[in-house]
């Protein structure tokens, strides 16, 4: 079971084909995307859809160095702390940011 952060990142991966296996099994991908959407709160999902329309494949980004890779702003300390547990919205560009440790440690 993925948490909300993982579901957002996974949904974005699936929609933009960053998962090499996804394109090979289109039906499974549709089903998985539907599952991801069902596990994300409607407000977050709506925000994701707006970001996707605006930024496409850079709507969701890794902020590993404490910087938003979308607009290059340095994140405030509290957001860097927040990244360890959940997703963060960039104050300047609004993109969804995540730290890979918070997302991928639970995939294993
Ligand atoms: Zn930004």
How would you summarize the topology of this molecule?
Blueprint: H1 4-15, H2 26-38, H3 42-55, E1 60-62, H4 77-82, E2 88-89, E3 96-98, H5 100-104
Helix pairs in contact: 1-2
The protein binds zinc ion (ZN).
The site of zinc ion (ZN) has 8 residues, from loops.
Characterization of this structure:
This protein has 5 helices and 3 strands, in the order αααβαββα. With 108 residues, the chain is mainly α. The chain has one domain: Helix Hairpins. It has a 3-stranded mixed beta sheet with strand order 1-3-2. A hairpin with a 6-residue loop joins strand 2 (88-89) and strand 3 (96-98). Helix 1 packs antiparallel against helix 2 (26-38). It is globular. It binds zinc ion. Zinc ion (ZN) binds at residues 68, 70-71, 73, 90, 92-93, 95.
CATH architecture: Orthogonal Bundle
Whole-number total of structural domains: 1
Major sheet description: 3 strands, mixed
CATH-derived topology: Helix Hairpins
Which bin fits the share of residues in helices? 40-55%
Name the structural class. mainly alpha
Molecular shape: globular
SSE sequence, one letter per element: HHHEHEEH
Using only CA atoms, what is the Rg? 13 Å
| Major β-sheet strand ordering | 1-3-2
- Overall mean pLDDT: 89
Number of helices: 5
The set of bound ligands, ions and cofactors reads: zinc ion
CATH class: Mainly Alpha
Uncertain segments are: none
Oligomer: single chain
Q: Strand portion, in percent?
A: 5-15%
Number of strands: 3
Separation of the first and last Cα atoms:
12 Å
């Amino acid at each position: 079971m993925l948490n909300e952060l993982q579901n957002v990142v996974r949904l974005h991966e699936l929609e933009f084909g960053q998962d090499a296996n996804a394109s090979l099994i289109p039906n499974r991908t549709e089903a998985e995307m539907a599952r991801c959407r069902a596990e994300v709160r409607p407000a977050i999902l709506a925000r994701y859809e707006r970001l996707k329309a605006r930024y496409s494949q850079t709507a969701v980004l890794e902020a590993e160095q404490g910087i938003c890779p979308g607009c290059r702003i340095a994140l405030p300390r509290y957001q860097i702390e927040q990244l360890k547990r959940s997703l963060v919205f960039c104050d300047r560009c609004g993109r969804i940011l995540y730290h890979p440790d918070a997302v991928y440690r639970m995939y294993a």
